[in-house]
Every structure is written in structure tokens, then in C-alpha cells.
């Protein structure tokens, strides 16, 4: 038997000016789980999309089961046994799960789809791989984890032997991740070969046989899981050591700076409506809000910051009732805000780094200078900020559109934190930024807290919530399902609360 079912040699791929893959190498053995890791933008998705035939390679070669592929497109890849589960699912919400699975299998001319037969086949896979899937539910009613399992079934039904999963755990709770890993182990036991893309080292260390690393479009080597360590992997990923686990300081908790009292907020999506939430944040503490995306965290923050109307209840900031005040007024009362969507609300992409650093009132969309400074003073200030917050490139006259995601986010963080407001709200502050920037942003939040600010942190990354927060509040479908000191939190108890809390039947005979 050949050693490899896939060989990708000397791969090069550019998109216009962007050299997404400068030098890619990848091999896959039959029946292994091979992880592909690297920072955001390292070229992982591109490498695997090339294997799946979504774009042609510029140069290099792709060999599948010994055959050098002259031409690749998804249809040809599938014929050669390669399937891919994408980061964004491609399911139709209004159709049932079964209809979605069948969709895409074009019935032969003159024939209609045999639903009974299709159901049988799908049920066979569900049983074989022990997947929890309800075939007759509408896709809009199933969880993200279930949707992902449906996507896996769809690839299996095409008869593939090689399955690529692009950051499958990014959207899952720890419990759903565990379920996924069981399925992957089953697939592996059946002899399927799997590519697992991730940037979470603990997951990679748990599931992989081999691990390949990419950095800035370059291949950084392949290692056996048993012969490597998370430290070795991070060094390969970013070229130096990083310390994401900040030393938490326990500063003196001061007065209550934010009080949210029985707040109700309307939203389009049912699960995002805020139904009576009460919470508070004190000076000198970081309060983390954990929850699966879309359970009301964005709506809550918009309601506090004046971007969304509060239907009932009140928001008290710094002793002042700011309920339904304009964003500018809320800021004046003592709010700094690192918004979830930095491009829409955090930055003006066409303005220079400097002007973004001094602009306030970003939330309202009106980019007015907060303080009228003379040019030399502005330059001096910008220079300091660029240095202090490690913004690269350091030329602050450049537009922020020239910055990578991580550096653009540093500009927002720098501006908001340096205002030294009493309340700092950070919504997904490290989403989509690279590890170096994550380290710097996390440290900045810790410093803001040490300086006495109350920090309200919303993050989809549980690891981030646990490592930064002093106190953690969990929300599910617009309600608080639990609250605990961070010292008592772990992925399990938070994960359960994120799913609503009351999952008695899953507790089984566990003693705790
Ligand atoms: N279709 C595309 N068009 C232009 N640039 C792209 C495209 N796909 C990816 N890129 C760029 O290529 C680089 C690598 O991206 P990607 O492979 O998605 O990285 P990763 O999956 O490791 O985060 C990034 O700079 C990204 O912006
Ligand atoms: Mg990617």
C-alpha cells in the first residue's frame, strides 16, 4: 500500500497580490487524523481548499491515491474520495435535515428522489457513527453541533474516504466538541483519513496522530503528536514563545460601576431576545459573559451602550441612569467600548491610524475629534500609542485599511483603554486576531482592571473568559443561567450552563 493517500508538494498559491501559500507541503496517511495548525491567515484554509479543488494551484503538485491531479475541482475531488466540511455551513434553514442531506444529489433525469431509500441510507450512517441527528427537524431548529454532523453525513454520502474539517470546533461548546471528537475517532476506526484544521492546541494534542504547522504561508514542519509539546507547536506557529495565561491580579474591588436591572431587549432572532437580565460590574474586576454566539450577548452590549432600545428595565452607569440615552451620552457617563465589529463600529478604515486613535464617538458613526490637539501633540500621542500597544506597521499616517486584523484591533483597544473610563466593555476583543495580538490585548485588559476600571468582557472563547475574568456570568437564550467566581469555573460547568443548564438526564450516575 502507498504510504500516503494525499501528497501536496511545493504548493504555491496567490490571490492577486496576496501570497496566501508561499510554500505548502502536506501528506495524509490512510486512517490518520492529521491536524493543520497556524495563526489566522497562515494559509491553512487555502491549502485545503486547493486539495478540494476550489481554486487551481499556481505551482506544485497534488497527488491523490497515487494519481497526480492535472485538474481539480470539487466534483473531481469528490470522485477521488475527498470531501470537505466548511467553516460556514451550507444548509438551507427552511428545509428539514433530511431534505438538506438529499439536496445536492441530483436525481437522474426522469426519476424522482426516493425519500424512503434516502432516509434509510442516512439512518445507516447515523447509527454507524453514533451521531445524534433528528432528520425531520427544520435546520433552523437544530444546534450548530447538529448542523455540523449533518454536513459530515453529507460528505459521507458522497462516498468519500478523506474528510477535511476546517476549524470545526470554533463554533462548538466543549460538550459538542467532545461529541465531534467521538465521531472523528469512529471515522478513523473505519479507516477514513481526516484533516483537522484548528488553532486550539489542547484539541490538537488530544485528537491528532500527526500535526503540520504553517506560518505566513510557509510550511513549518510536520511532527508526530507523541513527539511534540504545545510549547514546541506555538514556537513553530509564531516563531517565539507566547504567554496567553496572564497572571491574574486580585486588585481591590471598588464600587459598583455598572448596574443592569431587569433589562428586556427585543431582537429579531428568538434566542437573542433579552428576557429580564440583571447584573453588575464593580471597579477593579473583570466580569466575563460566557455563552454560545447568538444568545443575546450582542443585544445586551448594544442595550448598555445605547445602540439598541431597552424595552423594560434600567441601566445605571457610574450612578447615572443611562437607559436609552444616545451612545455619546453613555460614553460621557464613563464608558469605553471595544465593539464586536471593529470594521463597522470600531474604526474608520479610510482614516489614518492617527485619526482613529484620537477619534471618539465611533459608536454613533460620527467621526469627530474628541479633543482638538495641535499637530505635533497629535503626532507625539500617536507615536506613544503605536509603541505602547505594539501597533505594526508603526507609520501612524497610514490608513487603518493597511493593517492586519490583529493590528487594527490594537488601534481600537489602544484608543478605548487610554481614555481611562470607569467602565470598559470588550466584546469579542480577540476574535479573528493572531496569537501575538491576543497576548497583547489580554494584557491590556488586565492592566485596565488593575488601574481600577470595571471590565465587562464578552467572548465566545471559554478559555479566554476563564483565564481573564474574576467573575463569570453565563447566558443562554437571553437569560442568565449561572454565575460563579472564575476559580470555580471550568469548560464543563460553563458548557452545561451555556446550553441552558437543566440537563438532568445527561448527568447520569455522576457523583458530582
Ligand atoms: N479568496 C481569497 N482572495 C484573496 N485573498 C485570500 C483569499 N483566501 C484567502 N486569502 C488570503 O490568504 C491568506 C491566507 O488565508 P487562509 O488560507 O484563509 O488562512 P487561514 O485559514 O490559515 O486563517 C490571508 O491573507 C487571506 O486574507
Ligand atoms: Mg481558515
What gap, in angstroms, lies between the N and C termini? 49 Å
**Fourth-level CATH superfamily of the largest domain:** P-loop containing nucleotide triphosphate hydrolases
Into which percentage range does the β-strand content fall? 15-25%
Contiguous runs where pLDDT drops below 50 for at least 5 residues: 361-369, 503-512
Structural class: alpha/beta
Largest sheet at a glance? 6 strands, mixed
**Rounded to an integer, what's the Rg over CA atoms?**
25 Å
**Overall pLDDT confidence:** 88
- Helical percentage: 25-40%
Q: Provide the CATH topology of the largest domain.
A: Rossmann fold
What small molecules are bound in this structure? adenosine-5'-diphosphate, magnesium ion
Please give the oligomerization state of what you see.
single chain
Instruction: Count up the helices.
Output: 18
CATH A-level architecture of the largest domain? 3-Layer(aba) Sandwich
Report strand order across the widest sheet: 6-7-8-3-9-10
Overall geometry? globular
Structure write-up:
Strand 1 (6-15) and strand 2 form a beta hairpin. The chain is α/β, with parallel strands linked by helices. Strands 6-7-8-3-9-10 form a six-stranded mixed beta sheet, with helices on both faces. Helices cover 33% and strands 24% of the residues. It has two domains: 6-238, Rossmann fold (3-Layer(aba) Sandwich), CATH 3.40.50.300; 256-502, 3-Layer(aba) Sandwich (Rossmann fold), CATH 3.40.50.300. The two termini are 49 Å apart. The structure holds adenosine-5'-diphosphate (ADP) and magnesium ion. The site of adenosine-5'-diphosphate (ADP) has 11 residues, from strand 2 and helix 1.
